[in-house]
Structure formats: C-alpha cells, structure tokens
Amino acid sequence: MNRPPLPRGTAYAVLAALAALVILVSTAIFLGVGGPEGRSATKVPEPGRPATSAASGAWIGSWSTSPSSAEPNTPNGYAGQSIRNVVHTTIGGTGARIQLSNLYGTQPLALTHVSLALAAGPGTADAAPGSMRRLTFGARPTVTIPAGRSVVSDPVRLVVPQATDLLVTTYSPTPSGPVTHHPHARQTSYLAQGDRVEDLGGAAYPTKTKYWRYVTAVDVWSKDAQGAVAVIGDSITDGVTSTPNTNRRWTDFLAARLRTEPGAPAYGVLNQGISGNRVLLGSSATVPANNPSALDRFERDVLTRTGVRAVVMELGVNDILRLPQQTDPGRITAGLRKLVERAHARGLRVVGATLMPFGGHRGGKPVQEAVRQAVNEQIRSGHVFDDVVDLDAALRDPADPERLLPLYDSGDHLHPSDAGYRAMADALDLDTLKGQASAAL
After folding, report:
1. Which pLDDT tens digit goes with each residue over 287-331?
2. Which of these CATH numbers, 3.40.50.1110, 3.30.40.10, 3.40.50.1970, 3.90.1170.10, describes 226-277+301-433?
3. Each residue of 84-94: pLDDT tens digit?
4. What is the pTM of this model?
5. Residues 213 and 180: beta-carbon distance below 8 Å
6. Using CA of residue 413, residue 416, residue 420, residue 425, what is the dihedral sign?
7. What are the domain boundaries of the chain?
C-alpha cells in the first residue's frame, strides 16, 4: 500500500533523530569511561570470540604496566610539573587511548593538561612532528581522578606504529599525592617545570627519571590484531636486570616473536610484572597495599585489560625466597590454580612457567630448593595450567641444574641477563597461546 510522504519538517526531524542515534552509538563504542581501580574501564570483547574483525576493528591493549606502589616522599605529588612518560608499543593501530591511575593517591588528582604523541626517536623526550594530540576525558580537556580510581581517555586518531615509543605527558597544577607509580620501568622518562605538556621539543625536560607515573595502559584501535596476552609475574617479568632503554625484557622478546613469526597469533603483549610480587601475600599492610599479591591484583591487572585472549604466569619464586617464606609447595600451586580458575571463568587460556633456578642467590637455602623442585613437579604434571613453558629447563646450567647457565645469569644468580630474557621468550611455544581454556585440569 502506498503511503503519503511525510511532511518536510517531520522528515527532517526523523533524519535528525537518526543522526543523533548514530552519534550516540559511535560515542558509546569509542569512548572510554573512568571507573574504580580494578574494574574494567573499557569494553572488552566477549571471551571465546575473536577480539577483532578486519571489517570493523577493536580496541586492543598494546602496552600496560601494573601500578605497584605509592611513590615515596610524594605527599604533594608533582604540582606545577609536567611528567613525560616514555612507553613502548607492541602492536600498532589507527587510534589510541590511555589509562591513568590514582590508585595509591589519598586525595583527588586534578590533571588540567594531558597529551599523547609519538616519540621522535627511541628514548627521546622530543615528539615526532604532526603527532601531538591533546587528550580529553568525556569530551573535557581536564579530569579529576578520585583517590583509588582510574580513568580512560577519549580516543584520538593517531597512526601508532608497532614497536615504537610513545610520549604520555600529564600536568597537575595542584598538590596531590602520594603518586601512583611503577618504579622498575627500565625506561627513562622526563620531568619539566610548568605546563609543557604539548611541547614538541624536549628541551624543557632536563630531569630524567626511572619511573612510570600515573599511566598504566595504552590501547590501540586495530583491524589486524586478534587480541592481547597478559603476562603476570614478578621482577623477572618486570625485567629488572634488562639493559635500560633497549626493550629487552622477556615480554619484549615475546612481542617481537608474535610480530614476526609465521603463524603466530597477532597479539599485543601486556607486561604485568611487579618486582617482589608473590602469589599468596602482599608486601605491605597499607590500604591499598603496596605490591599486592597476584591473587589480590589479578582482576585489576589481567582480567580487565583490553582484549586479553590468553594469560602467561611467571610467579612463585618470591613466595619461597621472601619473608615469611612459604615452605609448603602445595599452597603455592593451590594459589596458582585459583588464578587459573578465575581466568577460565573469563574464557582465557593460561600458560604457566616453571620456577627458574636461584642457586647461589643470597639467602638461598637447600630447603628452598626443595620447595622449588616440588612446585615445578606439580606444574609439569599438567594439573595446574593449560600449558607449561619450562623456563627451568630452558635456563638452568646442565652442569649445575640448581643454578642459571652463566650466559643467562645477570650476575645475581636469580634474574636473567638480556640473553636469558631472550631464551625465556624463545622457550614459549606460541601455539599454546591459541585456543580455549581447558575444560578441566
């Protein structure tokens, strides 16, 4: 049946309403929303489904770090200073957004100016020409992050290459602290007096720093990536003995393999290592606890990261070595199983690492070696993780299996050298990162 045409005014009203709906839906898709620390502030693809499609693309984590503690002696934060963090991507995309955290703050953090840019070169404070973007939050150029919370910026259009340095710069005019930071960045960042957030050159940034402050994640909009792998671990995953400013943590070598090897899953790599981290106990009674246990931080640092498809765990050594020392291997593996169960509830596959040798490390005792061997036996049995990467076998000295191979030893007989970190990445079968979680262990 033929219907009479709508009056011109009515037709325009309908079109306007449809246009508004499209804008609203688009905003809902692209806009990151700030939320409590430990809650997802981004839309994560449904577990068990591809993280992206070539036709549409999706947000995928390209870089992240775990906020590990309150920076000492920062009760007033960095009022009146610009902080230029240098971070290194693993995958690229055509847009970007960042997460900022005030987890360890005790008062609101007011940021009046935040920017994102490509670095002009590795490790520099200079921005690449044409890449500087001022960031907004809910379409506003300023943001106040409550204590204990985090926020995700609005997205910006920016072609972000894989394996490149980004500059994430913040400015706060008012005192706020303590500062949420990650102390073992192995990457030089910079400080400047005054609001120099959108400076293209780095001349105003004379102060070098070894910390990452406030920034905890960078997501990219990708049509090519299939997701991300989150690697949760201790100082070994943190890469504390890797050469600074060279991106030679074992997760960096893993990211390079994923980018270059035929048939490898197209994953970003998210390093969630914290020096001194344990499975069972945190390192402080403060609230929130500095360096919380893996059980306490798993939701925040792994399950809510953007586009995670698989998890790698490198944990347990500090439970054995740090006071109070855990002498029951069954308690350590029970804690690891709890983490695996939580990952399985999200449909995430988990690859777990055996504990590497620490013979010769200060304070090491025969009883601790016995616990390490017992933990490794349970891990190798196949009843803890979906798959195992045997880092113990890959890095130990065949002539003295309780010690690291000298080539792989940084010198402290616990942490690997750059060559050791590469050997760790080479030991991981990339096919184990594919597929679904096991039905039962």
Report:
1. 678 999 999 999 999 999 999 999 999 999 999 999 999 999 999
2. 3.40.50.1110
3. 999 999 999 99
4. 0.89
5. yes
6. positive
7. 35-217, 226-277+301-433
